[in-house]
Amino acid sequence: MRTLLTRLDHGTRLATAVVVVIAVALIPLTIALWPNPSNTTETSYPSAVLTEVSYTDCENVTDEVPCGDATGTLSTGQQVNVMLFRDAWLSHVDNGDRSILYASESDDAETVYTFHSHDRALKLTIFTIIIIALVLLVVGGKGIRAIASLLASALFIWAFLIGGIAAGGSPLLYTAISIVLVLTGVLFFTHGLSTKTLAAWGGTMCGAATAMLAGTLLATWLELGPADESASALTYTSLEIDLSALSLAALLIALVGILNDIAAAQAATVFSHTTPGTPPTWRAILPTALAVGRDHSASAIYTISFSVVGAGLAAFVLAHTYNQPLSAFLQTDTVATTLTQMLAGIIGIFVTMPATTAFALFLSRIPTQPSPTPLHTH
After folding, report:
1. Among 36, 85, 175, 179, whose CB has the most other CB atoms within 10 angstroms?
2. Which helix (H) or strand (E) holds 133?
3. pLDDT in tens, 258-310
4. Do 340 and 308 touch, CB atoms closer than 8 A?
5. Cross-strand bridge partners of residue 114
6. Residue 18, CA distances (Å) to 25, 45, 127 in order
7. What pLDDT is attached to residue 4?
8. Measured between alpha carbons, how far is 142 from 268 in angstroms, rounded to an integer?
9. How confident is the model at residue 378 (pLDDT cuts 50, 70, 90)?
10. Confidence at 375, pLDDT banded by 50, 70, 90
């Protein structure tokens, strides 16, 4: 073990030490906070092929009133009656469509089937395989590692972050732990254990922490409430969830990829202007690095702003349709939450770029060659 460590360069040792510290500090906490699956309600979502689809005035009914029916053939061959609501009509459900049904028990213990969604599993699988092939062709092994990291992160976020919040845990606590663990795993697995990766990791953490702090202060000051129908529906299932904190957690999950992109590019810019093992000339590198970082940060501001506003586009269109005054619409929970997410994200971007630059300039001074192994003389 000691021989192996002596063969590693100083940057790799430092990056490895950071990963080990994060793992030792957070993995036991993650295990302690892991949500208990026994509290969840068992539901059934069987797949079926629909026939004899018919609708009755779906255009003029509410979402809670069934306006059609169909016959569904389950994978077992059993035929069941399927209730169709307005969402099925809007999804253009027709004869021969393979759909996912929601099976629930009625008051008389009979199973009631309703349309849930189209069965898109095969199409999504084919599309995913095509994307993986393109990534392998264009990016190579590093791209495949990135996809593997993404899939592992998605499973962890679903099981730990979403499960923990659904069980009544603090959205910000679960989000903070998830971001640190996911970023640490994804960055170092994809880009390797190096000082360049460590600089990107440090810059991203600074940006995410600043965005969390700014968002928390803004959300408290603006007294944010439910931002959309899904958030409002949560009040009927788990009143202990802090909805403003949940909106902020959603921002941080969406923002971390953008911050990581800025940090990785900024670290690469700095390290591309340095010679391994040679102390960098700050006056020569800093202006160039900051110029590149400013351009990238400006583009990232557009990215976060348009993505946040685009996510709430339906609410904007609805307000315009009902001729709601702009002055009143801008003060609704939906828009206030959107603006809070956008402003917190921009603040995080502003911090990520200079922080990554500082980390990269400092870490690039570390020698990249391993310590020489002492010769044994007799």
Report:
1. 175
2. helix 121-138
3. 888 888 888 888 888 776 556 666 677 777 777 887 887 777 777 777 776 67
4. no
5. 83, 102
6. 11, 43, 37
7. 47
8. 15
9. very low
10. very low
Q: Tokens in use for 33? A: 């906070």
Residue 157, token pair as written in the block: 């976020």
Query: Beta-carbon neighbour count of residue 370 at 10 Å?
Result: 14
* The two three-digit tokens of residue 4, written as one number: 């192996």
Range of weakest confidence among 175-184, 198-207, 327-336: 327-336
- Give residue 1's pLDDT: 47
φ/ψ (deg, to 5) at 291: -65, -45
CA gyration radius, the chain? 26
328, amino acid identity: A
Tokens linked to 66: 């069934």
At residue 170, φ and ψ (nearest 5 deg) are: -70, 120
> How much is the pTM?
0.72
Please check whether residue 335 is in contact with residue 318, taking contact to mean a CB–CB distance below 8 angstroms.
no
Question: Any idea what DSSP says for residue 44?
Answer: B
Instruction: List, in sequence order, every beta strand (DSSP E) within the chain.
Output: 47-55, 68-74, 79-84, 98-105, 111-118
Q: Three-class SS of residue 227? A: coil
| Eight-class DSSP state of 162 | I
Shortest CA distance to 309 belongs to which of 334, 346, 278? 334
Distance CA 95, CA 98 (A): 9
